[in-house]
Amino acid sequence: MALTRRALLQSLAAAGVGALGGGFGYGYLYGRHALALTERDLPVSGLPRALAGLRIGLLTDVHRSQWVSDEDVHDAAQLLMRARPDLVVLGGDYVTWGDRRYVGAAADALSSLSPPHGVFAILGNHDDDHAMPAALSAHGFAVLRDARTRITINGEALNLTGIRFWTRRASDIASLVRGADGTVVLLAHDPRRLTEAEALGIPLVLSGHTHGGQVVLPGLGAIAAQKFPVVWDSARSGRTTIFVSRGVGTVYVPVRINCPPEVAILTLRAA
Question: What is the CATH number of domain 7-270?
Answer without folding.
Answer: 3.60.21.10
